Amino acid sequence: xxxxxxxxxxxxxxxxxxxxxxxxxxxxxxxxxxxxxxxxxxxxxxxxxxxxxxxxxxxxxxxxxxxxxxxxxxxxxxxxxxxxxxxxxxxxxxxxxxxxxxxxxxxxxxxxxxxxxxxxxxxxxxxxxxxxxxxxxxxxxxxxxxxxxxxxxxxxxxxxxxxxxxxxxxxxxxxxxxxxxxxxxxxxxxxxxxxxxxxxxxxxxxxxx
Length: 209
What we know:
By secondary structure, the chain is an alpha+beta fold. It has two domains: 2-80 and 196-203, 3-Layer(aba) Sandwich (Glutaredoxin); 90-193, Glutathione S-transferase Yfyf (Class Pi), Chain A, domain 2 (Up-down Bundle), CATH 1.20.1050. Helices cover 52% and strands 9% of the residues. It has helices at residues 13-22, 41-46, 65-75, 90-112, 122-147, 158-169, 181-191, 194-203; strands spanning 2-6, 26-30, 54-57, 60-63. A four-stranded mixed β-sheet has the order 2-1-3-4, with helices on one face. α1 (13-22) links the parallel β1 (2-6) and β2 (26-30). The protein starts with a strand and ends in a 6-residue tail after the last helix. The mean pLDDT is 97.
């Protein structure tokens, strides 16, 4: 039994979707970010970074959304939501997971919280983040046009779930991910899956659901 500490629609969404896709029994513990629960002593004991998600695995808490998503896929190989080690698609799988986590996701932090480090340059930081995000969407859209319909070709995987979470984050941007045709088609395809519908219902996600 896993326990996922989450906040609705946050970086835990990919982990939640993966839990549903692999059919793993799990409990959900909501963290009230607005109330500052992530900074409480109790939560910091689980996740010293004070962020979500935290996933408790066999009694031990772990963090980092991409790592947790990949860990779940590895612990449940029968679900086939990730290519097996040594398989032909393994390199592409690792490449895209790290691209989404390292190249695209950090730009959203700059978009949503541009004044965190340089308040005087917040506008410039936000503009740069938007350009970076749109560049990433263009790159992914071109990849899907040539190698789709999923991120790993004909095969659905947790890479798609991670991309879907980030696409949702862009929903209120000047150019959301769905402005790119291949990404729009991917989002439509993934949002039809039972895991998406269940995650939205459980987390109370109405916008873009």
